[in-house]
Every structure is written in structure tokens, then in C-alpha cells.
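Batch manifest, entry 17 of 40.
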Amino acid sequence: MKYCFNCKLHFTEDVSFCTQCGGSFNVKYCSRRLHLNPVNAKYCKFCGTSDMSKPNPPSSLASRGLQSLFIAAILVAITALFLVLVHLYSMDALPPRIIVLAMVIAAVVLAAARR
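Output type: C-alpha cells
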């Protein structure tokens, strides 16, 4: 399966261009004869034209990794907060509504982080 990162659509392997934005998948094609060229080519290696297709940008795995790490860190912090609050409550040092408030705040933070 091919994926267009601009349009967020999946395509079968036989498709050369996104049907929504016209971007090519991990290659550049020349406009004259659709010669196949590497993504970093400025001129067609067969006919020399500079009129090339615009490939889709590659996915940013680094930003996805940082986003996942950020969400994991938030989950760990919320879990630690919850455990401390439950411990304080079991020692009768904290009213139950504080725990509920903390859980609501944690849910809001998680919802915001997922966007």
C-alpha cells in the first residue's frame, strides 16, 4: 500500500500519483515521458528536462517518535500522581473530591495531548 501524507489517503501499489494532490510516491517523474527518477533529482536522467513531478514529503518518523514519547511521559506522570493521591487518601490525609478533581484534570490533559 502507498500512502499520501498530504491527503492522508491509501492507494494500491499500481498507482503512481495521488488522485487528490497529484504528488508522486517516493520518486520523481519527468513531465515529458514519465521517466522514473530519484526523489532528489533536479533533472530527468533520461531526457534532461527540469519539469519534474512533486513527490509527497516523507513521513517524519522523528516527530512521531517525539509525540509518542511525550504522551508516554504524560501517562507516567498522571499514573504517579494518581498513586500518590490514593496513598494520601488511604491515610485520611486527603478528601475524595481532590482525587476526582485530579482525575478529571488528568483526563483533560490526555485529551489535549492526543490532538
